Amino acid sequence: MMRSSVSNCPVPTDQQPLNEYEELKTAWLFRDCTLNWREYITNIAWIWGYSWLVSGPVAAASFPPQKYIAHFFLCGTAGASLSVIFVLVRMYLGWRYIRDRLYSKTVFYEESGWYDGQTWVKPQEVLTRDRLIVTYEIKPILQRLQFTFAGLAGMYLIGTIVWHLF
Question: Across all residues in the chain, what is the average pLDDT?
Answer without folding.
Answer: 92
